[in-house]
Amino acid sequence: MNDKLTVKTLIEDLELLEHIKEAKNRRTSRICLDNHSVFEKQEMLAIENELNELYSEYTFEIIFVMSGFGQDLIITNKQAKAEYDSMPKTRTYGELYNLLVEKYGITRNSKLKENPDKSINDIQFNEILDFELSLNKLLSYAYDRMGSLDINKKF
Asked: Whole-prediction pTM value?
């Protein structure tokens, strides 16, 4: 399916109202638009503007993902975002990566994407920590599974 995106499609087929409820509770929500045609910048702006007028407590932004091969609609609860943005930033990325190395023994071969001195709030710190721990478990599982395969076995 490669349908042209409209506000009607978002509401009827892509469960926009459910995503708005999620954004109300979680600050943001995201709708994958992969099954819809790539549209011109003016069309994107028209859809964003219509949604922003219909649901004024939220902001809507269509972004490119997967190096521009996909698009997502980001729905943000304005009040929750303002509260989140006003939270004190008492932690740093450096502190997070030191914790990963010292407590969990998790290191990355790639360079850090973020400045280690950049401040983040406690929620960001814990979300990134949880993600890194989950990623590490997933990678460990994958490596264990690969190690248990008999590479000499013919398929």
From this structure: 0.69
